[in-house]
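To illustrate the input format used throughout this study, we show a single complete record. The first block contains the structure-token representation of the backbone; no residue identities are included at this stage. The design step must infer an amino acid for every position from geometry alone.
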């Protein structure tokens, strides 16, 4: 386990702080960002409007929790209801393509129901909902993943109120393969 903590998701936020950086990383939802740099290391290419970057090493499996509380709290009476859609893209190629599951994949939080046949086509099924505010999953990166590779996890979640009305929020997380 490392220092990556829950990421704030949804557009009702002013900024976010993520773990495993040399210093706190602050990024507004409008895409403005400041990346901590150390000698010989370049910051990742910013991907407009995504949260992160969320760092992971080659060969690691890490939990990824997205905290939707600020968005849900901005619409009183609603509770996170369902993950409508999710996809994982390789952003190191142009145009972006679905991520190769041999390099990176989203896996179930159910440790007893793991399989080796994950193809990244069913990413939404691998994301657990923890109402009222959190989505949770695990990300696994293969040993052959190149340092500096960037991926984007796209999510669409729905919230409902007691009257059955539904609202939808789309967000994304930048995932960067790094050595530290």
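Output of the design step:
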């Amino acid at each position: 386990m490392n220092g990556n903590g829950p990421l704030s998701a949804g557009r009702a936020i002013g900024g976010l702080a993520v773990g495993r950086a040399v210093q706190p990383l602050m990024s507004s939802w409008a895409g403005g960002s400041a990346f901590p740099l150390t000698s010989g290391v370049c910051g990742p290419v910013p991907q407009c409007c995504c949260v992160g970057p969320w760092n992971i090493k080659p060969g690691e499996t890490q939990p990824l929790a997205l905290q939707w509380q600020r968005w849900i709290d901005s619409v009183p009476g609603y509770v996170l209801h369902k993950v409508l859609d999710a996809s994982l893209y390789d952003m190191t190629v142009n145009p972006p393509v679905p991520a190769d599951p041999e390099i990176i994949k989203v896996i179930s939080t159910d440790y007893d129901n793991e399989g080796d046949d994950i193809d990244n086509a069913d990413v939404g099924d691998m994301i657990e909902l923890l109402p009222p505010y959190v989505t949770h999953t695990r990300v696994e990166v293969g040993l052959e993943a190149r340092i500096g590779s960037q991926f984007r996890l796209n999510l669409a979640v729905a919230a409902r109120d007691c009257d059955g009305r539904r609202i939808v929020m789309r967000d994304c997380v930048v995932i960067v393969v790094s050595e530290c």
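Structural context for interpreting the output: Confidence is low (pLDDT under 50) at residues 11-44. The first strand starts at residue 7 and ends at 8.
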